[in-house]
Amino acid sequence: MTRRRALACGAAAFAGAGLRCGASWMDGLLHLGDSEAPAEVFKGDAPDDELWERWSGRGWVREASHYLKLGANVQCKTCPNNCILAPGDRSHCRNKVNRGGTLYTMVYGNPCTFHVDPVEKKPLFHFCPGTRAFSLATSGCVFRCLNCQNWEISQKKPEETKDPSGPELRLRPPLPRGLSYEEMARVSLFPDDVVAVSKALACPSVAYTYSEPTAFYEYTFDTCRLARASGLRNIVVSCGSIEERPLRDLAPYVDAAHVDLKGFDDETYRRLNSGKLQPILRTLKVYKELGVWFEVINLVVPTYTDNLDSIKRMCAWMVETLGPDRPLHFSRFHPEHKLDHLPDTPIDILVRAREAAREAGLRYVYLGNVREVADAGTTYCPGCRRPVVERDVYTVTAFRLDAGRCRYCGTPVAGVWTA
Ligand code: SF4
């Protein structure tokens, strides 16, 4: 970013610039090329004083962890959108606002949804099979996927999913049998509550999922740290669009990640997701470098990401960069959101994609959202080729591994197999 562009964005007071997380502010600015303008933000859309007071009274507001101060303006450094916000602006992900020259997240401790899911639903097929994850999400997302399945929360502001009126409702054991819609809207679930609730529900893992954990990074980070210290595991289900520094800060507390690799060229990422490919590839490489277990998901969307040549290039890159043991899940598209005019992905395209991935050298390739293919969720031993883990959608129906090795031939199968 040039000084001229920074000024045009309102970043006028360079003298007062500073990076909250401690690095040089110039490091943060200079890696942005001129072609990489910050994402569009919602100008003047921050909450009014009355709503802000009620929101902060609930403890749902925290200062953001990774941002630059640019005089009265701020620049978020959590994801490659690099939003620049003048006072009173709201971020691209809808969750952050500039109030008085400070960047705040509005989604701390106020998830808009939570459930207990099998880890297979994330999907993670090589991580603690048959266990449960307490799964939560807030509103907001860093992307704008045309096919989003969770757009009713991912494309909403915090105030459209939560309501701080009425008495405070902090969820802790003993848990109620259920919550009404109104109660759900005012639930607080702070990191220590998440740990207590996960344990009460016999969930050994907490999953940050459904929308996008990068858009609720501060809540994710604090909860991950406390969950790890409390003996729980952390699962991050993400589009992978995150800046390197916050990723490296978070990764030591992540036990498993599901990363969407939504396509394999920038043009498709731009058209389908309003995102960029390279940050996702970097995230995958960083997880590999740091030894975090992760699995890759590719949604095959007709006319967008169903090109077999592109799929072959993606698989070749995966084998070369991430290794042949990295699980790849091809997921079937169903008409959703702004792509409800497209058909379901034809089964034969998915089967051909699986063949191409196996030919490229990937050892563990799955088909998701598919009932028509009998072994869509089967893990084959890379040594003797026999089925060692069989699944019916999210249920493990046969398990023939001992301490992570094939029961027939003893070949190790990559993954984290202990509960
Ligand atoms: S996390 Fe949100 S506020 Fe930060 S850069 Fe990304 S979209 Fe913008």
Protein model, in words:
Helix 7 (191-200) crosses helix 8 and helix 12 runs parallel beside helix 13 (347-360). Strands 8-9-12-13-14-15-16-17 form an eight-stranded mixed β-sheet. Strands 1-3-4-5 form a four-stranded antiparallel β-sheet, with no helix packed on it. It is α/β, with parallel strands linked by helices and 419 residues long. 28% of the residues lie in helices and 21% in strands. The chain is globular, with a radius of gyration of 22 Å. The relative contact order is 0.10. Residues 76, 78-79, 81-83, 91-93, 96, 142, 214-215 line the site of iron/sulfur cluster (SF4).
| N-end to C-end Cα span | 47 Å
Our count of helices gives 13
Name the ligand types.
Answer: iron/sulfur cluster
Rg, rounded, reads 22 Å
Query: Considering DSSP H and I runs of 4 or more, what fraction of the residues is helical?
Result: 25-40%
- Strand order, sheet with most strands: 8-9-12-13-14-15-16-17
Topology:
Blueprint: H1 3-8, E1 18-19, H2 25-30, H3 49-57, E2 62-63, E3 67-70, E4 73-76, E5 84-85, E6 96-99, E7 102-105, E8 113-118, E9 132-137, H4 151-154, H5 158-161, E10 169-170, H6 181-186, E11 187-188, H7 191-200, E12 205-208, H8 217-229, E13 233-238, H9 244-250, E14 256-260, H10 266-273, H11 277-290, E15 293-300, H12 308-322, E16 328-332, H13 347-360, E17 365-368, E18 379-380, E19 387-392, E20 395-399, E21 401-402, E22 405-406
Parallel strand pairs: 9-12, 10-11, 12-13, 13-14, 14-15, 15-16, 16-17
Antiparallel strand pairs: 1-3, 2-7, 3-4, 4-5, 6-7, 8-9, 18-19, 19-20, 21-22
Helix pairs in contact: 7-8, 12-13
The structure holds iron/sulfur cluster.
Iron/sulfur cluster binds at residues 76, 78-79, 81-83, 91-93, 96, 142, 214-215.
